[in-house]
């Protein structure tokens, strides 16, 4: 579904991505793990066209989208819930979700999207008239994911969905990611909580300083000594 080959991205003189190769197949949950500054968010931003690749290729559903606009990429069925949630604080929950449905013109289809999001996140339905800025971090994260789902993406990319959340909310968010996946949405997940990410993933990639240094089945990565020492707290089995 998504194929990334030799992806290079620069921030000015900084060579942020140095030849990333990765693949996400339809129906999978795939995790990108790595420390801060490894290039995880940069990878997602380049895939979505918010950053421009300086070399390499991104293909989505067989089409080259390397130089496509972010708007066109969303229309094709690829959606991102960004790091830091980035909801519109002065707008209500309903209005934030409405902005997520900007690719749709059919009222019945928009209503279906609302229904799906409110079914996944009943708390958003309870607070649909509340302004997003007055909500808790967990509720804002639900809203960010819900907004990304309003376009009914084929591939949902999530950037650090558990960041700053209490442990019980982390569990809730990861349960929701699995539910979304079971409903037919493929997921590419960037996450510093490597334990949780690998526990729900089919496969994973380890990024270090702009390069993929390891890729494997999620279970194999979680049992890899190097990965455990670096990202999983060297947990003993």
Mind telling me the C-alpha Rg? 17 Å
Instruction: Give a quick account of the main beta sheet: strands, pairing sense, barrel closure.
Output: 6 strands, mixed
Low-pLDDT residue spans: none
Any idea what the shape is?
globular
Distance between the termini: 34 Å
Summed up, the helix count is: 10
The whole-number mean of residue pLDDT values reads 92
Class from helix and strand fractions: alpha/beta
Tell me what you see in this structure.
With 237 residues, the chain is of the alpha/beta class. It has a domain at 84-152. Helix content is 38%, strand content 26%. The chain contains ten helices and ten strands. It has helices spanning 40-47, 70-76, 93-100, 107-120, 122-126, 137-149, 167-182, 194-200, 218-222, 225-231; strands spanning 2-11, 14-24, 29-33, 55-60, 63-64, 78-81, 155-159, 186-190, 203-208, 211-217. A six-stranded mixed beta sheet has the order 6-7-8-3-9-10, with helices on both faces. Strands 2-1-4-5 form a four-stranded antiparallel beta sheet, with helices on one face. The longest helix is centred in the last third of the chain and has 16 residues, at 167-182. The protein is globular and about 45 Å long. The chain starts with a strand and ends in a 6-residue tail after the last helix. The relative contact order is 0.18.
